[in-house]
Automatic annotation (TrEMBL):
Highest taxon in the source lineage: Eukaryota
Protein name (Swiss-Prot/TrEMBL): TNFR-Cys domain-containing protein
Family matches, as InterPro entries: ConA-like_dom_sf (IPR013320), Furin_repeat (IPR006212), Growth_fac_rcpt_cys_sf (IPR009030), TNFR/NGFR_Cys_rich_reg (IPR001368)
Organism (species): Blepharisma stoltei
Keywords attached to this entry: Membrane, Transmembrane, Transmembrane helix
């Protein structure tokens, strides 16, 4: 008993209990078409369904097979179907049941589901008829009923949820209800009987009826469900919350079934087109229309799981992933495993650059399998492992005929033979200390292997490399570096064209590429050039060009690489080879060349100008500039441009010697480089290459460049001839002279010039000059000897405040005395210093041949707020007045025979003259008036007959301001001292005449002697003690500027002054 009717057996989902069928499971069949299988099982009863008539399926579809459509179920083509397999578990329905499906039909007719017995009698059919749903079934009494919807229809090209229900009314009568999406329709009572299913020998077809040939369904079918009850539709579908559609399967958690046609594949919310040949659809835009997740997979069960069968030339790995056989790679274009290049064991393309692992005998280098690793790499298994990519360093600091680079020992032959300095061959560049080699632009050349006699090692660059070179060009033309093949094609070259750098590189595809630097090289200056090739992971090459530490420009070569070779090449420095020989010679210097089989930072090769210690355009990495001297010059430093001219005999040099020796030791004839320890052969008469010392009995004569017997005025020490010390004509060593030049004295092994002689190469006598400034600021030069020629205006300069005045004139007074009248450009002076400079010392000589010792003299102009004309007028007036007064005093003294009036007058004048010496404020005119009184002397200074006034230094400055020109006491008080001497001499004479036998004479002199023998001395002392006192003070104070104890005149004057001071006190 079930649904108020009696059935022959309990249907699926029910359990018999007595005579009642009790429900155990409402869902009795659930076929979800989400796999890629020929046989599909429903998830409830494990009923098996086969696609088409055989077991073939994707990727070998038959006409009866539906197409697997990712996320959209199966696509039935109108010729395809599925049918349950024999021996599948039984599936029976009761009188009431529900059948549902998600369909996206292309045509509006066709069977969706049918069930028939072994005689092909349909028990159930669920189909489309002109867009309507039609359901038919066979009842228990053997009759059949069917019903087609009239009010609801399906929508073509869109997803439709459809369901058909068998319902038994209480009567009981048979009814059928339909659902399309959320719309429904129910039939009236169709019969008084009910549906009675069969439990064996049945077949369920999907997409077809019993004959499997007519009215086949065309469109997508996502799933089919059977319920053993009148199932509520709400338990099957979701509505209102679906993302992008109104209804969706409840299993998809609000996701909609993608509404993409077969030639498209869903991607997110979009439908992407398949390629044109993909008639059965695709899951990606690939050529093979592969539905498996693994593109190399041939057969798979679904869209996400592992592969079952792999494609041709592939195998299944342990991880159940398909992979191409060794020697094959997955061709993304043709989507097949394609044969690799013969150099590859595994690869990603058919070229040797696509290798992942190299075949035996080949080694991996930057993605390419090559037979030999580049320089700087070692073979490690099947790969080239980087070791030291600094592969080439050719430094031109040698003097050998074959230069070996310091990294790989690659030989570079200079010229045409191993002969080099000092015996250059015609093709040799010249060695230039601190500047490398100089190529003359005519025939200078160097060779790297391959060259007769030098076949290896050969310099070769890899795909990524850095090449740098220092050059100093002269004419902007020629080939600096050239590597060529046997046909003289350039593999690698650096050329110059009007100062523009041209680079030639050989690439594997594009053969030769030419690149030009954007900047022009300057002549006669150092330039650093760098070419860097980078072969990237993407298999293309970028060339970067650097000039003087800065990027010049870059070039992208594309999918290509630099192709070098070591076979049958010509490698030349300074020229290029052709069929006739060599041409395109370079003129200039090459300092060094470096090569790396990797990219190097430009800062590790050269620095731009602003990082250099000097102003060169570029410099070495230590910041130092390369010396920039011509080949006819040598560097003297310290600045890079400090150069000096070589001797005319030298093609190149390291000093000014005419012998052109480039070795460190001038006694070395040939050497390997410029170092002190590099000598190979000594010059004649020298031996021992470690030192090259002159043979016994000989010494080095640099002026002759030879080992010879030392000259008479030389001595031998440290294997060289050295000149004897100054003034020495013969010597044993630098500390012991044997004989001296003329006029020199030999004392304790040394030669000395006598005092007052100037020491040059000989002993020269000297004479002196002093400067006096008179109150009217006229300058007087007093020489200690008569001049051979008169002093002229052009032989001196007169300066005040360290600036030369505009006008002066020299007036001859005597052969020793000259007056300088100056236009100082100012009228008033206050502590103004005047300097007289002698421009022509050699032209100012004495008649004895002595030379002038002083180069300049300094004096102080008289302070004056009074015009010079006024000073002269005051002095003239005072001088005239004094002469008149003294004359009158003398007349009165003669007539009165009493000189007291004259003494009184002189004493008064003297006292008045010393008033300016006191620290009292007086006007300039009054000071000049009183000072002028001190210049009156009627008695000559007899001491000047024995003392040269200009031999003494000037006194201290304050004494000079009062007219004292010397510190010598007998110069300053000479007139008074002369009078004292006269008095001393006259006293015995008067006494003698007082004893005269002539009475008159005796009586007269006796009276004079009696009256004046003491008064004369006393009167003289009263008048003169101030002069003695001032002169003594000046003599003592002036010695603070001189070393008095080093000269007898100075010391005698100093002690006389002190004696005079003691007497005065």
């Amino acid at each position: 008993m079930l649904s108020n009717v009696c059935l022959k057996f309990c249907p699926s989902g029910y359990i018999l209990s007595g005579n009642q069928c009790n429900l155990s499971n409402e869902l009795v069949f659930n076929l979800r078409l989400s796999q890629i299988k020929d046989i599909v099982y429903d998830s409830v009863r494990n009923v098996a369904f086969q696609t088409g008539n055989d077991d073939s399926f994707y990727p070998f579809y038959n006409l009866e097979d539906p197409f697997a459509a990712n996320l959209r179920g199966y696509y039935f083509r109108g010729t395809s179907f599925m049918k349950s397999k024999d021996n599948s578990p039984s599936l029976t329905l009761g009188a009431e049941f529900t059948i549902s499906a998600w369909i996206n039909p292309i045509l509006d007719i066709g069977y969706i589901i049918s069930k028939q017995d072994s005689l092909s009698t349909n028990f159930i059919t669920f189909s489309l008829t002109l867009g309507k749903l039609c359901f038919s079934m066979t009842l228990e009494d053997g009759t059949s009923v069917s019903y087609t919807t009239t009010t609801i229809s399906i929508t073509l090209g869109s997803w439709n949820f459809i369901a058909a229900k068998s319902i038994i009314s209480p009567t009981p009568k048979q009814q059928i209800s339909f659902y399309i999406d959320s719309s429904s329709e129910i039939s009236s009572d169709l019969a008084s009987s009910w549906y009675q299913d069969i439990s064996s020998a049945f077949t369920i077809n999907i997409g077809a009826g019993s004959d499997l040939s007519t009215n086949l369904y065309k469109g997508f079918l996502w799933d089919v469900k059977f319920f053993s009850v009148n199932e509520p539709i709400i338990s099957i579908i979701t509505s209102g919350t679906c993302s992008g559609c109104s209804l969706c399967p409840i299993e998809l958690s609000n996701d909609c079934i993608p509404n993409c046609d077969l030639p498209f594949y869903p991607s997110g919310l979009s439908c992407n087109s398949c390629q044109a040949q993909c008639g059965w659809g695709c899951v990606r835009h690939d050529k093979n229309c592969n539905l498996c997740q693994d593109v190399i997979c041939l057969v798979c069960d679904d869209y996400t799981s592992t592969c079952i069968t792999c494609r041709e030339h592939t195998y299944m790995s342990l991880a159940a992933v398909c992979a191409c056989y060794d020697g094959y790679y997955w061709d993304l274009v043709n989507e097949e495993c394609t044969l690799c290049d013969f150099t590859c064991k595994t690869c990603i393309s058919s070229t040797s650059g696509g290798c992942l692992v190299c075949a035996p005998g080949f080694y991996m280098y930057l993605g390419w399998c090559i037979t030999e690793c580049p320089d700087g790499f070692i073979e490690n298994g099947s790969i080239c492992e980087e070791q030291d990519t600094f592969i080439f360093y050719l430094s031109f600091d040698t003097l050998e005929g074959v230069v070996y680079d310091k990294k790989s020992k690659i030989p570079a032959l200079i010229g045409s033979s191993p002969e080099f300095y000092p015996d250059y061959d015609p093709f040799d560049p010249l060695a230039a200390p601190y500047r490398g080699f100089y190529f003359n632009g005519i025939n200078s050349i160097m060779h790297l292997p391959i060259y007769p006699g030098y076949s290896s090692p050969v310099l070769s660059f890899g795909y990524s490399f850095t090449f740098s070179i220092w050059i100093n060009i002269e004419n902007g033309f020629g080939t600096v570096v050239s590597k060529q093949d046997s046909l003289y094609n350039q593999i690698f070259s650096l050329q110059l064209a009007v100062g523009i750098v041209k680079i030639s590189l050989n690439f594997s595809i594009s053969s030769i590429n030419y690149f030009f630097y954007l900047q022009t090289l300057g002549s006669y200056e150092w330039n650093h050039i760098t070419i860097a090739a980078e072969y990237t992971n993407l298999k293309y090459t970028i060339i970067a060009f650097y000039l003087n530490g800065l990027i010049d420009h870059q070039a992208n070569i594309g999918f290509d690489y630099f192709e070098d070779t070591k076979i049958d090449v010509t490698f030349t420095l300074g020229a290029a080879k052709n069929s006739l020989g060599y041409s395109s010679y370079f003129k200039g210097f090459i300092y060094d060349i470096k090569g790396y089989n990797s990219l190097k930072s430009i800062s590790s090769l050269a620095l731009p100008s602003w990082k250099c210690t000097e102003s060169c355009k570029a410099c070495l990495t230590n910041g130092m500039c390369i010396s920039n001297c011509l080949i006819s010059q040598y560097w003297i430093g310290p600045q890079y441009y400090n150069c000096s001219i070589c001797s005319n005999e030298c093609s190149s040099c390291r000093d000014s010697s005419k012998f052109c020796n480039l070795c460190d030791n001038p006694k070395c004839y040939s050497c390997t480089d410029y170092a002190a320890t590099s000598c190979l052969e000594c010059i004649s008469n020298a031996s021992n290459i470690t030192s090259c010392k002159c043979n016994y009995g000989l010494g080095w004569n640099p002026s002759l460049g030879a080992c010879e017997i030392c000259q008479a005025n030389q001595f031998k020490a440290n294997d060289s001839c050295f000149d004897c010390p100054d003034l020495c004509t013969q010597c044993e060593n630098e500390d012991k002279c044997i004989s001296c030049v003329k006029n020199a004295e030999l004392r304790s092994g040394s030669c000395f010039c006598p005092p007052e002689q100037l020491k040059k190469s000989i002993c020269l006598s000297v004479f002196h000059v002093t400067l006096a400034v008179n109150p009217i600021n006229t300058l007087t030069l007093s020489f200690s000897e008569d001049l051979k020629k008169n002093l002229t205006d052009i032989q001196i300069l007169v300066q005040i405040h360290n600036k030369t005045i505009s006008l002066w004139s020299v007036t001859y007074i005597s052969n020793r005395t000259f007056l300088i009248s100056c236009d100082f450009g100012i009228k008033k002076f206050k502590k103004t210093v005047v300097t007289v400079l002698f421009k022509d010392l050699e032209g100012i000589q004495s008649i004895s041949g002595s030379v002038l010792l002083e180069k300049y003299l300094i004096g102080t102009l008289y302070n004056s707020d009074v015009m010079p004309e006024e000073i002269i007028e005051i002095k003239n007036q005072v001088s005239a007045g004094i002469k008149i007064l003294v004359g009158l005093g003398a007349i009165f003294s003669i007539f009165s025979l009493n000189p007291s009036s004259l003494w009184t007058m002189l004493n008064t004048i003297q006292l008045l003259a010393y008033i300016p010496y006191a620290s009292y404020p007086i006007t300039e005119k009054i000071s000049v008036f009183f000072k002028s009184m001190n210049n009156f002397n009627i008695v000559p200074n007899l001491f000047l007959l024995f003392i040269e006034e200009n031999e003494s230094n000037s006194p201290y400055s304050r004494a000079s301001n009062y007219g004292y020109d010397s510190y010598l006491i007998f110069v300053n008080i000479g007139s008074d001292a002369t009078v004292l001497c006269c008095i001393i001499i006259a006293t015995p004479l008067v006494y003698y005449f007082s004893k005269c036998s002539q009475r008159y004479i005796g009586k007269k002199f006796k009276k004079i002697f009696k009256e004046y023998k003491f008064a004369t001395f006393l009167r003289f002392w009263i008048v003169s003690y101030l002069e003695f006192g001032f002169a003594s003070i000046i003599g003592i104070l002036s010695t603070e500027n001189y070393e008095i104890l080093k000269d007898s005149i100075y010391s005698t004057n100093y002690f006389l002054c002190w004696i005079c001071i003691v007497i005065i006190i």
